[in-house]
Amino acid sequence: MATVLRYSPDELKTIREYFGGKRPVKMPDQALAESIRRENPGLVPFLRMSDEKDLFAKLQSDPRIRKFSFVMFFPVLEGHLDSDLREVTISIGPTRTRGFAARILVDDRDMIIKPIQSPDEPKIAKFAGEQGIGPLQYETIEHFLTEEFLPGSPFSQISSNMNDVAARVIGSRVADILTILHKAGIVFNDVILDDDMGGSHLLIDPANGIKLIDFGVSLDLTAFPNLTDEQVYRVLLTMPGIGALIQSGMIGDTALEVEIARMKEEIGIKPIRELLFTDVRFVHEGVGITSMKNNMAAQAIWRAFEAKYHME
Ligand SMILES: Nc1ncnc2c1ncn2[C@@H]1O[C@H](COP(=O)(O)OP(=O)(O)O)[C@@H](O)[C@H]1O
Ligand SMILES: [Mg+2]
């Protein structure tokens, strides 16, 4: 077996700092970038640290980069970095809004690494993991989440065959989850139960329970009514009407700034309840979609949800 390249703690630190946004990006000249794009796509993310000549050359000669790219430098793989990584299964795929997610299987641990979508996300995801309402969060590189891959079926895939009992359990669990989040001043802001595309952020697993995934547009309202522009942007992003316009790129930067300023003022005079209510509206919409496939279950979910959910 060929010897495996080793990285010193300093080298690891340097790499992680580049990916964690702690060092200025320094791209190489066009020609080198082009040839790397052609010959070794796994190396492309490292182009930003082309200034680190020795380290870059080392990465270039590391055969594992081809398959694992920068994912191999995440803390959860540190114990395996002195091996050929043959024990590690990885699949990297595109996602709807974040760009990509990498699924990693090692030592019976099933994990996901994905870029964060907002400055609030790491804190909210950590809270959700601790509360048992979202995936556990592991040590990571800043600007990325490394989390437990939750087994289970998306609600949207089982809603059509669901009986009354299961429906009540789910409705009541969703109410509990939202109550926990709302008490902590968090709006999930993306409670997709069932959507037209068959997607869902609610995962149902008999052994592991019922949990939410994807806190990408969730809002930490602990500073309410003082929200940052970026937070107000997330409020707008999931609002009926304007949200769809923003998501489809139909609103120009100037118009968006005006909307953000207007919404910021509006939020200043609103009770927090109205922002939290976004999640209830999402649940109601999801139940509406479910009712077209399984009206009995949809009614049972909504009744159980309403009976259990409390917003002070
Ligand atoms: N922790 C996780 N456990 C199980 N599946 C996940 C997890 N994180 C992401 N996924 C899967 O990957 C998809 C995309 O991830 P997500 O965080 O929703 O990104 P995006 O916002 O780009 O859709 C999810 O809809 C889900 O199917
Ligand atoms: Mg998603």
Outline:
The protein is of the alpha+beta class. The protein is 43% helix and 13% strand. Among the domains are: 62 residues, no CATH class; 156 residues, no CATH class.
Number of strands: 10
- Could you give the order of the helices and strands? HHHHEEEHEEEHHEEEEHHHHH
The poorly predicted ranges are none
Distance between the termini: 63 Å
Output the structural class: alpha+beta
User: Which word captures the global form?
Assistant: globular
Strand order of the largest sheet: 1-2-3-5-4
Helical element count?
12
Radius of gyration: 22 Å
Helix content: 40-55%
Mean pLDDT: 95
Instruction: Please outline the major beta sheet.
Output: 5 strands, antiparallel
Hetero groups in this structure are: adenosine-5'-diphosphate, magnesium ion
**Percent of sequence in beta strands:** 5-15%
InterPro entries: Kinase-like_dom_sf
Protein name: Protein kinase domain-containing protein
